[in-house]
Batch of 2 targets.
Target 1
Amino acid sequence: GDSVVQTEGQVLPSEGDSLIVNCSYETTQYPSLFWYVQYPGEGPQLHLKAMKANDKGRNKGFEAMYRKETTSFHLEKDSVQESDSAVYFCALTQTYGQNFVFGPGTRLSVLP
Amino acid sequence: KAGVTQTPRYLIKTRGQQVTLSCSPISGHRSVSWYQQTPGQGLQFLFEYFSETQRNKGNFPGRFSGRQFSNSRSEMNVSTLELGDSALYLCASSFGTSGGEQYFGPGTRLTVT
């Protein structure tokens, strides 16, 4: 079945550092790819998305490129801020279905 | 536009009891999915309903069931509760079209004692 793996556990950059959170997926079909962000006490919310290969999702300075050749969708930002601290989930869904598969989540804690 | 709402927000039950959780999707959304979130297992897909029919199902025992009504509102039921069922239960709605994003509610925190 489909699967998603991402940077495990917690990452602790300082404010102003650059960031890469890795995400790789396995599927035999043609997924749409997403990053969701979850703040304490809330449900996950859509952060950015890419619907097909070579699409780039962008939101609030974050970017992720849908790379079919490496089956990756890494989340990147040039300069993180304390307000970016949250849990980030990489996810995929198939073009012809609504069954989302989520990665285990990465806790981003930006140090002031 | 109002977001996804879930009731109740918090619930405490005893082992062996059953529980029903409710979800109201965003207006116009026809698909509702349910997820279980725990620290150890992350976000796990339970099932998805579209136009009152279960369209997808995750790998959970038959104690977990759901339904969707004609107004797209959905309920999930867990019978014979076990301690391991303690989790945050999230509902997400979408238009139900191919590859579209889902919008999550705040979740129901279930504690089984």
Target 2
Amino acid sequence: DTEVTQTPKHLVMGMTNKKSLKCEQHMGHRAMYWYKQKAKKPPELMFVYSYEKLSINESVPSRFSPECPNSSLLNLHLHALQPEDSALYLCASSQVGGGGGNTEAFFGQGTRLTVV
Amino acid sequence: AQKITQTQPGMFVQEKEAVTLDCTYDTSDQSYGLFWYKQPSSGEMIFLIYQGSYDEQNATEGRYSLNFQKARKSANLVISASQLGDSAMYFCASSKGSSNTGKLIFGQGTTLQVKP
């Protein structure tokens, strides 16, 4: 199973709503990531979890709150978002590197978020 | 800081022909990885090919090959025998060192259109 599953695929939310994005993988990967991608732009890293601990926060506003309940799950909690936060949110997972070799990241299909 | 440059915003190729997508990178790291991902309109980032900075041979994966020229800091993707299903956005990306290989820096991407 080389799949990263993200739910929901589409989400429309108001600026006062609270919602969560979910990501799941069963590849035994111990590193998981959230990326944000605006239309026709490259993905930009938001958060990195390594062994279920937050290791990197790329100066993301606090209205985005990540959570890694276990080694297979990654959530992104959303609260008081702005219309400019509308984007494709991609989850990825990989082995934690260090031994060299090909340890590519596997991405989910993303959640297309629209903030109204 | 690492930087990935893709100078071709859009490319056209005739079906069954070969096409080269350009990628140059800028890094002062000795150890790094270079990746190519394909992103169809569905949004999922699909891993295509990987090249490690210490790999002496160019990577190949089926119809994909990576033309790695370390001295020129280039990592061009060659797609042979193009198919209509190859129409997508293609991103070149790099990872820092050999840890957290999902921590990727992406280029701006190249949109490839395959003509029948």
